[in-house]
Backbone:
């Protein structure tokens, strides 16, 4: 459980995080979403007691992080970039962290196997690829078998196989009753991994809701392809449901989840050739929500001849 | 995942505690162990310490051998100024570069790579990390540099004894001189650790250490002699080096007084580092 209350961080004139309040609950993967520079890393550093809040507070498992006597057992963290000395091997990096709290060597070997770094464990971390560095970061987060995990951009730099691996790992960890918070600037990634979302922009809270609600709010559409489009269209008709069609066998449905559409079709014995939630609309909703909050934005030129 | 992790359910008042029993409190001893693993798992540690010992022993032998070979060609004044003990230990001047740099790197290396955030996340109290780094580095430096100093002295005197110029450890003050080299270098290392922690930057830390030890005394010489003589003896390097002086000269502090002053500088720097370490964002 992570609770932030009116968390604010100022660096001189610049305010990185403003009056941020949210709760990250155990049992589900919570995505911490925002454009680059939104204050995600700052917030995560405050969760871990690395940066002190200017005002407000944040507690992990009921206490400020720094007050935990055995922090690695409470919270496993993977911080932005690589918090690893480049001259040291992965094995010794983990061994040194483990030693601070008496975690046995056996557990170090265990997490090396969990993240699949066995073959390179004794090589200098400076020579690691981005993906290997991410795996090492995850290994250090898992060392104390903690009830809470805080991961900053964990999929960054992973190959598709690695991304799938971490998605499964995080869902498993959450299913075991742990609190899992991971940050990302990619909405599409979050839609696949997280169940709950905390969205921030320019250091302010923009949304704190389930991914399902976010999708609903975004008016996410579902693309359906079937030979019996007309029949399905009639079956789906209901208040709050909009169905459009550009080609005779393809429907764009808003207001219904793909699960519901699939079931309706199955009940009616309609064969579907395609049933696809449109992720693009999700990404658009996120961009729409954070548009004003994007710190660095390429200027968009008005197209000539287009009325303002 | 391991099957020992029970599928604790969400919801209850207490946070889930999957996995093994844990008594994993962070203690000073454990942090010391952690820092020991860090220190010995970096190649730069060994490289730098070997350079320091080689500089200490090698230069001592070189100077001693040179004097032994050229004694007859030296002027009476040079012969009168000759100190067998210090000649064999002169390598400390180079060794202090290696020790000072490594002292800075022990801390600044973690800032440069981002490791410091992992370190402070594991030890949120932070101060145990500083004490462990300082204590450990001091112990390692003292052991190696005292051994190196002894080797340099014995080798140098052996080379000089052919000419019957050599001193012996039994001579008055010689043991203090030999031990003094180890102690001086240890405090140089501590100064490095402290300045590395204060400045959090390798280049800045190294510049600060050697600015203090090598440049400040030169600047002090620019002062009028009536001032300079009084100021110079209190400067870190001059005060620290008085522990190695066989004979006390005018305008120098007594050996142990000087060394205490030098330790005082390092203590102040460490205290400053401790205060800022607690206060600053990592």
Residues:
């Amino acid at each position: 459980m992570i609770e932030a209350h009116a968390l604010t961080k100022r660096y001189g004139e610049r305010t990185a995080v403003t009056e941020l309040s949210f709760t990250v609950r155990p049992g589900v993967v919570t995505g911490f979403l925002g454009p680059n520079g939104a204050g995600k890393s700052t917030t995560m550093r405050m969760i871990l007691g690395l940066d002190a809040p200017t005002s407000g507070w944040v507690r992990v498992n009921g206490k400020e992080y720094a007050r935990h006597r055995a922090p690695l057992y409470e919270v496993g963290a993977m911080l932005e970039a690589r918090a690893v000395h480049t001259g040291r091997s992965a094995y010794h990096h983990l061994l040194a962290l483990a030693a601070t709290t008496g975690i046995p060597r056996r557990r170090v070997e265990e997490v090396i196997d969990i993240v699949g770094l066995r073959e390179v464990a004794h090589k200098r971390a400076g020579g690691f690829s981005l993906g290997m560095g991410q795996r090492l970061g995850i290994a250090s987060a898992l060392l104390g078998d903690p009830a809470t995990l805080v991961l900053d951009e964990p999929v960054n730099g992973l190959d598709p196989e690695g991304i799938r691996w971490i998605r499964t790992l995080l869902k498993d960890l959450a299913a075991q009753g742990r609190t899992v918070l991971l940050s990302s600037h990619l909405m599409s990634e979050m839609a696949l991994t997280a169940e709950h979302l905390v969205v921030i922009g320019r250091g302010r809270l923009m949304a704190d809701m389930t991914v399902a609600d976010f999708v609903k709010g975004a008016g996410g559409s579902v693309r359906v392809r079937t030979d019996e489009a007309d029949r399905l269209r009639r079956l789906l008709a209901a208040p709050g449901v909009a169905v459009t069609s550009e080609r005779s066998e393809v429907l764009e449905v808003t207001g219904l989840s793909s699960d519901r559409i699939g079931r309706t079709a199955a009940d009616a014995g309609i064969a579907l050739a395609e049933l696809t939630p449109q992720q693009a609309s999700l990404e658009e909703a996120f961009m729409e929500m954070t548009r004003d909050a994007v710190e660095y934005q390429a200027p968009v030129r008005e197209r000539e001849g287009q009325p303002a | 995942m391991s099957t020992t992790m029970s599928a604790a359910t969400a919801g209850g008042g207490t946070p889930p505690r999957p996995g093994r029993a844990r008594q994993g409190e962070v203690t000073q001893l454990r942090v010391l162990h952690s820092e020991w693993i860090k220190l010995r798992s970096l190649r730069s540690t060994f490289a730098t310490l070997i350079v320091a010992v080689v500089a200490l022993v090698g230069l001592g032998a070189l100077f001693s051998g040179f004097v032994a070979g050229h004694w007859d060609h030296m002027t009476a004044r040079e012969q009168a100024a000759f100190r067998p003990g210090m000649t064999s230990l002169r390598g400390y001047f180079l060794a202090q570069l290696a020790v000072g740099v490594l002292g800075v790197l022990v801390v600044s290396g973690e800032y440069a790579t981002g490791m410091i955030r992992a370190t402070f996340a594991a030890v949120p109290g932070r101060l145990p990390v500083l004490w462990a780094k300082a204590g450990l580095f001091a112990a390692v430096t003292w052991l190696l540099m005292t051994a190196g100093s002894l080797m340099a002295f014995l080798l140098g005197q052996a080379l000089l004894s052919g000419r019957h110029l050599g001193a012996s450890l039994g001579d008055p003050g010689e043991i203090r001189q030999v031990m003094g080299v180890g102690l001086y270098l240890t405090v140089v290392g501590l100064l490095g650790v402290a300045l590395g922690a204060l400045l959090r930057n390798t280049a800045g830390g190294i510049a600060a250490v050697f600015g203090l030890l090598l440049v400040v005394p030169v600047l002090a010489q620019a002062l009028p002699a009536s001032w300079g003589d009084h100021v110079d003896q209190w400067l870190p390097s001059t005060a620290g080096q008085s522990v190695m002086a066989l004979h006390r000269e005018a305008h120098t502090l007594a050996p142990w007084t000087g060394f205490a002053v030098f330790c005082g500088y390092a203590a102040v720097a460490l205290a400053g580092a401790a205060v800022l370490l607690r206060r600053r964002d990592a």
